[in-house]
Structure formats: C-alpha cells, structure tokens
Amino acid sequence: MSSLLKTLFFQNKKRLLSPGGGSAVAAATTILSIRRRLMSTGAMLPQQSPPFTDSCADDTLCPTLDFPGGSVPFTSKMNFISGSGEDEGRIPCYRVLDEDGNFLPATAGVHQVIGEEMAVKMYSTMVRVETADTIFYEAQRQGRLSFYLTSTGEEAVSIGSAAALSPHDILMLQYRELGVLLWRDFTLQEMANQCFGNKCDYGKGRQMPIHYGSTHHNILTISSPLATQIPQAAGVAYSLKMEGKDACAVTYFGDGTTSEGDFHAGLNFAAVMDAPVVFICRNNGWAISTPVAEQFRSDGIVSKGKGYGITSIRVDGNDALAVYNAIRVAREMAIKKQAPILVEALTYRVSHHSTSDDSTKYRPTQEIEHWKTTRSPVARFRKWVEKEGWWNDEKESQLRRDMRKQVLEAIQEAEGMEKPSLSELFADVYDHLPPNLKEQERSLRDIVKRHPKDYPADVPV
Ligand SMILES: Cc1ncc(C[n+]2csc(CCOP(=O)(O)OP(=O)(O)O)c2C)c(N)n1
Ligand SMILES: [Mg+2]
C-alpha cells in the first residue's frame, strides 16, 4: 500500500511543491484525491471510528454521549463558552529576557541554551538586516528601486526562529522575514540582485522587489497574494512526512493574513493530516492601516490553534531567546509527534508598511517611538550579549562599518548589472508558447521599437 501511495504522490509532487504554480487549494485537493483514489482501490482504508454502541439508550442515566470522533460528557448546566477568552483572561506570553537584557528570575539558568558563537551570529545577523533595510529603503527613496519593505522591529522573530531550525526544514515566507534568508546565508548580493531584477535574479526580474526565493536554501519563492503559503506549507509538510524525512515545513505570516480563508484551510488541513509544520504568526499589531482590534475578536492568533486541535504557544517576539527556545521545541514536537504547531510571536511593525505607505497618518507617533526605543529587540539582545562578555563598543563599530560597506557594494554591483532579456518575460510557464502570448510578445517588441526612449536601455530586446 505504501508504495502505491508514494507512486501517486510523486506523480503529483511537482504540482504540490511548485512555489508559484500549485496553489494551496490545488495542493490540498491533490492530496485528498490521492487518498480517495487509494480508498477506491482498496489500497487504503478510511480511518475507522470506534464501533457505535447503543449502550446507553436513556440519556439521563448516561454520563457521556457516544459520538463519532469520541465520546462527549453530558452536563445539565447550560454553559455558553466565552468567545473572547475574557472568562479565563488572556493567554500569557512566554519570555526569557526583560527589557534590559537580564534573565527573568524564573528563567535564570533554565533557558540559556545558546553559547557565544550562536549569540554573536544572531546579533550580527540582526545588524545585517537593520543595515540592509536602512540602505535599501533610502535607495528606493532615491528612485533606484521600484519598491521596498523593511522588517524593522521584528528582527528577533525571524532571526530567533531561523537559528532554531535545521537547514533541511523547508521554509515558506510572507515578505517581512529578511532575517530568515540572511541567517541561511542568502547573500546580500543575491538579495540586491532580486530587488534590482537583474540577470542574476533567480526570478529573472519577473517579481516585485523583496519576493526572494532560493532552491539552494530550501526557501520557496515569496508570493504577493496573502496566505497562499499557509496551505502550501501543510502540503510540503505532508510530503516530508511521506518521505520519512527528519525535517519539517515552516511558514511565516502576519496577523492580517490570518483573516484569509487559506489560513483556516491550511491549519485544518495540517491538523487532520498530522503534518509536521510550524506555523509562525508575526502579530505586529497592524495590517497596513488595520489594527488588530479591527482584524479579529479572538485573543490574538494563539487562541485559534485550539479550535483546530493544534498545540500552540504565545511568545514575546521581541525577545530573541524566547523565540529561539519556543521554535526549537516546536520543531522537535512537530517532527517527533508528526503534528502541526502554532506559534504566535507578539511584536510590532516599527516601519511604515512599505515604501508606498505613511503610517503616521493612522497611528500615534508615540506608539511607534515606544516600540522603536524601549522595546527594540536588537537593543535588548545586544544588552544580553554584552552582559555575557561577548560583545563591546569596538566590535559594534567595526560590524556596522563592515555591514554598511557590504550592502553598498552589493547595491552598486546589482544596479550595474544587465537586466534579463525581454523574451524571459514569456518563458518558463508553458513548454510551447500559446498563440495569445506569442501575439503579446510580438506587440511588445513592436511598441519598444516605436518608442525606444520609453523603455529602459539596459533590457536586451
Ligand atoms: C489576498 C491579498 N489581499 C490583500 C493584499 C494587500 N495587502 C498586502 S500586505 C497587506 C497587509 C498584511 O498584513 P499582515 O499579514 O499583518 O502582515 P504585515 O504587513 O503586518 O507584516 C495587505 C492587506 C494582498 N497582497 N493579498
Ligand atoms: Mg501585521
């Protein structure tokens, strides 16, 4: 049976794993259709419910209802369950360090799981992200890039989590997780090539800036439509399970993205299929101009895990050590139990949503300042690393100087590089170009010929 299941799966694998091609729903549908085909051939039996026993015909004498999926206790109290969680209070947030980088009394000695090398690499990657974000943002303002978006204030979520994963884990990002890419040694040059859409960009200049992806780094290409990565992650996790891999799928998404149908489909699918996936929600308080108070009535995202039967935790997203610890354990559980885990990281989007946004129009500047200074995840982590005796002002100035130089060099190199040729715009989707695309290509070439000044000179026609 397992070889038939595998054969059917591999026949469909390309569709399931293709980042842009196979949509999330298609992935789910394909896996379900594989199961259905196996059941119809008798190769796989549907999961058996325990046999129904009418052992208790009189409900008043019976303490439980024998129901498909498991028995349910009866009660004579008419209790409505509170939807907001106000009866139980809000779900607490796990943290390790206080704002000054000191271990909290309850966590001292218990949680110090990383040593100097890891701590310094994590801090250096945070500075790398900060520097890249600042310079790329400025480059966009100078008109050298069409678009950019920073992860300022959220560095601990991406770097703390990436550090806790294995390079074999397959990642599906949203767009505000540059730290994850840089942690995996995706270079500043690879990043700059993508943002400038030059001939070395893996996407051949066909995506907006910041839509990174790299097969070599096990990172699927980012796509603009929100939440598509969530059911895809469930499908990828299911494939890892079928191949018996010692790895999991990990997907990142924002608070606003949880309002998409794909979020709910993805979580339910992963739970029902026992797929080893870690869902990481960066709850940064805002979805462009929509605050979380207008996004959902639940106690954040962590409370939704229970509804899908998923083990979940809420963590302080500005505490890199807490994120690291939580994700390390979440990963272990996902693989060992072959089950999904949901992690909600509470953080804050300090930057504007993107270069197309001005967030001072819809939120108080004091709120932004508070998170930028008092609650900075980078400053907090630096304080801890310094207290351990692993960092000092001299190392700091040297690192910042080096990073600035590296980012500027990468931008200069990427900007000067030739763009992909015009024909690439039509390649890689169909084996043979269909007539409508042939016509579009012909028409585009005709327009470029007639209006050469309106088209960039560095795009080979
Ligand atoms: C399906 C879909 N709807 C709307 C958008 C437009 N959009 C882009 S980003 C964004 C906000 C997402 O917020 P969140 O998930 O909280 O992520 P954050 O930007 O805060 O990191 C919206 C509405 C989109 N890209 N895709
Ligand atoms: Mg958000």
Give a written overview of the molecule:
Keywords: Metal-binding, Mitochondrion, Oxidoreductase, Potassium, Transit peptide. Pfam families: E1_dh (PF00676). The chain has 461 residues and is an alpha/beta fold. The chain has 2 domains: 116-416, 3-Layer(aba) Sandwich (Rossmann fold); 422-451. The chain has helices spanning 2-17, 24-41, 116-141, 155-163, 178-183, 188-196, 229-242, 261-272, 302-307, 320-337, 365-372, 377-387, 393-416, 435-450, and strands spanning 64-65, 72-73, 170-172, 219-220, 249-254, 277-283, 286-287, 290-291, 311-316, 341-346. Residues 1-25 and 38-46 have low confidence and may be disordered. The structure holds thiamine diphosphate and magnesium ion.
Number of strands: 10
Task: State the secondary-structure class.
Answer: alpha/beta
Please tell me the total number of domains: 2
The CATH class name of the largest domain reads Alpha Beta
Distance between the termini: 53 Å
Backbone CA Rg: 25 Å
Topology:
Blueprint: H1 2-17, H2 24-41, E1 64-65, E2 72-73, H3 116-141, H4 155-163, E3 170-172, H5 178-183, H6 188-196, E4 219-220, H7 229-242, E5 249-254, H8 261-272, E6 277-283, E7 286-287, E8 290-291, H9 302-307, E9 311-316, H10 320-337, E10 341-346, H11 365-372, H12 377-387, H13 393-416, H14 435-450
Parallel strand pairs: 3-4, 3-5, 5-6, 6-10, 9-10
Antiparallel strand pairs: 1-2, 7-8
Helix pairs in contact: 1-2, 1-7, 2-7, 3-4, 3-12, 3-13, 4-10, 6-13, 7-8
The protein binds thiamine diphosphate (TPP) and magnesium ion.
